[in-house]
Write a structure and sequence with these properties.
The chain is α/β, with parallel strands linked by helices. Helix content is 37%, strand content 25%. The protein is built from 15 helices and 18 strands. The strands form two sheets. Strands 7, 8, 9, 10, 11, 12, 13, 14, 15, 16, 17 and 18 form a twelve-stranded mixed sheet that branches. Helix 5 runs parallel beside helix 10 and helix 7 packs across helix 8. Bound molecules: NADP nicotinamide-adenine-dinucleotide phosphate and L-homoserine (HSE).
Length: 440
């Protein structure tokens, strides 16, 4: 019997994710190698600061501060881009693909911004780009969409795609913990992005939503064309109000496609979910995604969405696929390599076609006639009120008004908010949350 082939792997980045990949390949090497049928050689590692203390010991001979040297090294067959960012990461990815290498990436910001260029480069030069770790951490949602669910078109995909935000929201709801201290915990635990505003302002979820929308619909939706709202304005009072109304609050990505009209909508926002909804009960760093296909119906996926081990699991899954591809050749990887449906003619849904019920929290002067003025603005825009809760506000002479609406749409609510902001009796910027009437 001939000796198994050796595959040389370069890691660009040895932070939270890179160290997890090194740790778990080192710990499970024999098992992994026997499953994949090749020897996995962690040949080179690029870092910014080679003197930094790390939880894994890397021989000095393997370290470099030049990730492009790894991308261009003729002996490296698999390049793992685990640095983050979109400038150097793009250069490294394109350099490796132009040499016909396989790139494994966890970098959803890069894919959202430069995905079209990256996949074109892979195709042109015979390289391959694997990105399971870019969405939902350890959940194999990319494989599910492009392999297991390939028979389907997808009227709705929605879910929790950011572990940091779900961790923060859960801690705020369960422990009444202050936002800033919970965010600090999420950073310490390795969940948050280097720039945590990507998490809390909704951009990381938007990057992931764009990857899922592309896989499901073959269209790159720019974040500029999405509704993107984060969690930083949610207060403990909102959780209490939501519970009173029978809801939980989750930061969701919602990707809908009206198959008859061929209209696509991608949005990211904190959402009130009915308390019986499974995803409303997904806590901590866990992500969960509901995928409705026109053939299969609704399927549900859940697991750790961020952190060292969950993300390493997804990266190593891609490394194993890449090693199998190198061993067996392209035919062995036909389905995984199928990227997305051919670009279709769907168009983005206009704001008046994006419907839901809404939750509106206003801090108002506690005076006669204020509720009537608010109601009159809403009536003017044909927004129908479903319920009203009034609580005392923290500041003297003010009240907190929480209104829910019957079904309305983004255009009407946008116009309503604009008018409400102009009322002298409305004291703070109103908070508008969407209600997700999803039962599965
Ligand atoms: P991280 O802890 O900040 O690690 C980044 C690594 O890249 C560090 O080792 C850093 O070197 C290295 N690096 C940065 N700039 C470099 C440069 N110019 N030259 C050489 N090395 C450089 O980040 P992370 O959390 O592991 O995330 C990495 C990627 O995975 C990101 O795209 C992120 O979005 C994605 N991701 C993260 C998670 C998660 O839970 N953390 C989950 C899924 C996906 P030094 O160590 O010397 O500074
Ligand atoms: N910062 C991201 C999150 C990492 O919290 O979900 C996983 O992509």
């Amino acid at each position: 019997m001939s000796a198994p082939m050796t595959v040389n792997i370069g890691l660009c980045g040895l932070g939270t994710v890179g160290q997890g990949v090194w740790k778990h390949i080192s710990a499970n090497r024999a098992d992994l190698e026997s499953r994949v049928g090749v020897k996995l050689n962690l040949a080179r590692v690029a870092v910014r600061n080679p003197r930094k203390a790390r939880a894994v010991a890397i021989p000095a001979t393997k370290l470099t501060t030049d990730p492009l040297a790894i991308a261009n090294d003729p002996d490296i067959q698999i390049v793992c881009e685990l640095m983050g960012g979109t400038t150097l990461a793009r250069q490294v990815t394109l350099a490796a693909l132009r040499r016909g290498k396989i790139v494994v990436s966890a970098n959803k910001a890069l894919i959202c911004k430069h995905g079209a260029e990256i996949f074109a480069a892979a195709q042109k030069h015979g390289g391959h780009f694997f990105f399971e770790a870019s969405v939902a951490g350890g959940i194999p949602i990319i494989k599910a969409l492009r392999e297991g669910l390939v028979a389907n078109r997808f009227p709705r995909i929605y879910g929790i795609l950011n572990g940091t935000c779900n961790y923060i929201l859960t801690q705020m709801e369960d422990r009444d913990a202050p936002y800033a201290s919970v965010l600090a915990d999420a950073k310490r635990l390795g969940y948050a992005e280097a720039d945590e505003s990507l998490d809390v302002d909704g951009w990381d979820t938007a990057h992931k939503a764009s990857v899922l929308a592309w896989l499901a619909h073959g269209v790159w939706v720019k974040t500029d064309d999405m509704i993107v709202e984060g969690i930083s304005r949610i207060t403990p009072a909102d959780f209490k109000n939501a519970v009173t109304l029978g809801f939980g609050i989750k930061l969701l990505a919602v990707i809908t496609r009206d198959l008859a009209r061929n209209e696509l909508c991608v949005r990211v926002h904190p959402t009130l979910l009915p308390e019986g909804n499974v995803i409303a009960n997904v806590s901590g760093v866990f992500n969960a995604i509901s995928v409705t296909g026109d053939v299969v119906g609704t399927t549900l996926y859940s697991g750790r969405g961020a952190g060292q081990d969950a993300t390493a699991s997804a990266v190593i899954g891609d490394i194993a696929d890449a090693a199998a591809l190198l061993k067996h050749g392209k035919g062995a990887h036909l389905i995984g390599e199928a990227t997305a449906p051919a670009r279709d003619e769907s168009r983005l849904a206009p704001p008046e076609k994006i419907h839901c019920r809404y939750y509106l929290r206003l801090t108002v002067k506690d005076q006669p006639g204020v509720l009537a003025r608010v109601a009159s603005v809403m009536a003017k825009h044909h927004v129908s009120i479903a319920s009203v809760i009034q609580n005392p506000a923290e500041r003297p002479g003010a009240a907190s008004l929480v209104l829910t609406t019957h079904e309305s749409n983004e255009r009407a609510m946008g116009a309503t908010l604009k008018r409400l902001r102009g009322l002298a009796s409305v004291l703070d910027d109103p908070l508008l949350l969407r209600i997700g009437d999803f039962n599965d």
